[in-house]
């Protein structure tokens, strides 16, 4: 049985013709716990390794899962100081694929998805000291993204110049309406609270849009981030949106059960406050509005998870090996968003 989503013979011929040193025969394996764009490990007969990305199967929402755009962004980031894989190929040839394919370099290192043991919530081969090093490396990598010179990188036209928070609220409210599988009234009420409390945007930077522990590869030697992955939500906007997103994906033991997001609750990982402190040290930014962005990111996370659930219902072949979000998990994220909104004073 072949790999779902790939014509292995046609894709093998394409890759071996790219001049990247790939030696036939090639093998393909679906990897990662990611539930959006599909990711595959590629291996050749000589031990070479690459990574292949394509959109998910089935019905897609407008403007979502654009791997061509992701290819453009990652190509532009080469040499900027942001740790990213090297782009090696892009094809939309219908003789090869039914959706765009992107080939990129393989980056060796630790991905938290690979070492978290579900159930017990233990990180198998990482000491508390290494977990701390990994955690503190994340806001440093985030700062490197926000330092990118947009003009030099050719990314000034990547997204609208309109205020970012309003764009996000409009976009993700629409996504919710298109993908929801069950009613969650708090999604609408949170959108209203966020709309009433939008902070003034004073600068525009590159924004990753989905920056968290499972979207980076870290060095097996010292824990520093050696590659930032999954750029499909990248845009231009307020840099604090990414910091808020990191906090949303960083539950602490004091938050109670964290469902699928559990790694950061383990011994050694820094607290959310420590992540913010490192980011401030790196960027010297005023982060007084980060509470708003934390709430917006939790709200957005619930909507993203709902989209994953919808795609899995529509086409079960999209389900990653580790499973995916449930309605109960989505409800728990919404509950956390409401509690955070109350805590930071969003009226």
From TrEMBL:
Gene3D superfamilies: 3.90.1200.10, Phosphorylase Kinase, domain 1 (3.30.200.20). This is Phosphotransferase family protein. Pfam families: APH. PANTHER family: HAD FAMILY PHOSPHATASE (PTHR47829:SF1), HYDROLASE, PUTATIVE (AFU_ORTHOLOGUE AFUA_1G12880)-RELATED (PTHR47829). It comes from the Bacteria. Keywords: Transferase. Residues 28-256 form the Aminoglycoside phosphotransferase domain. It comes from Prescottella agglutinans. The keyword Transferase applies. InterPro entries: ACAD10-like (IPR052898), ACAD10_11_N (IPR041726), Aminoglycoside_PTrfase (IPR002575), Kinase-like_dom_sf (IPR011009). One of its GO terms (molecular function) is transferase activity.
């Amino acid at each position: 049985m072949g790999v779902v989503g790939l014509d292995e013979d046609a894709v093998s011929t394409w890759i071996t013709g790219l001049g990247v040193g790939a030696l036939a025969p090639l093998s393909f394996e679906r990897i990662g716990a990611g539930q959006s764009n599909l990711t595959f490990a590629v291996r050749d007969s000589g031990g070479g390794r690459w990574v292949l990305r394509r959109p998910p199967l089935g019905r897609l929402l407008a403007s979502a899962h654009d791997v061509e755009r992701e290819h453009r962004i990652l190509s532009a980031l080469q040499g900027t100081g942001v740790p990213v894989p090297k782009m090696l190929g892009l094809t939309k040839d219908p003789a090869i694929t039914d959706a765009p394919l992107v080939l990129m370099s393989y980056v060796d290192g630790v991905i938290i998805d690979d070492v978290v043991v579900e159930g017990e919530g233990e990180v198998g081969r990482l000491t508390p000291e290494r977990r701390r090093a990994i955690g503190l490396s994340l806001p440093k990598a985030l700062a490197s993204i926000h330092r990118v010179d947009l003009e030099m990188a050719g990314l000034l036209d990547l997204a609208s110049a309109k205020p970012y928070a309003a764009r996000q609220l409009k976009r993700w409210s629409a996504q919710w309406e298109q993908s929801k599988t069950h009613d969650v009234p708090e999604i609408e009420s949170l959108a209203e609270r966020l709309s009433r409390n939008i902070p003034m945007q004073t600068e525009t930077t590159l924004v990753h849009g989905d920056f968290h522990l499972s979207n980076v590869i870290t060095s097996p030697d010292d824990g520093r981030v050696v590659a930032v992955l999954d750029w499909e939500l990248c845009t231009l906007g307020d840099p604090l949106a990414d910091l808020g997103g990191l906090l949303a994906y960083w539950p602490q033991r004091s938050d109670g059960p964290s469902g699928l997001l559990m790694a950061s609750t383990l011994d050694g990982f820094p607290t959310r406050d420590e992540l913010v402190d490192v980011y401030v040290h790196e960027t010297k930014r005023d982060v007084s509005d980060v509470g708003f962005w934390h709430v917006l990111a939790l709200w957005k996370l619930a909507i993203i998870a709902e989209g994953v659930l919808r795609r899995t219902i529509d086409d079960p072949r999209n389900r990653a090996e580790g499973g995916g979000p449930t309605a109960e998990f989505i409800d728990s994220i919404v509950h956390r968003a409401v509690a955070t909104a109350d805590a930071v004073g969003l009226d």
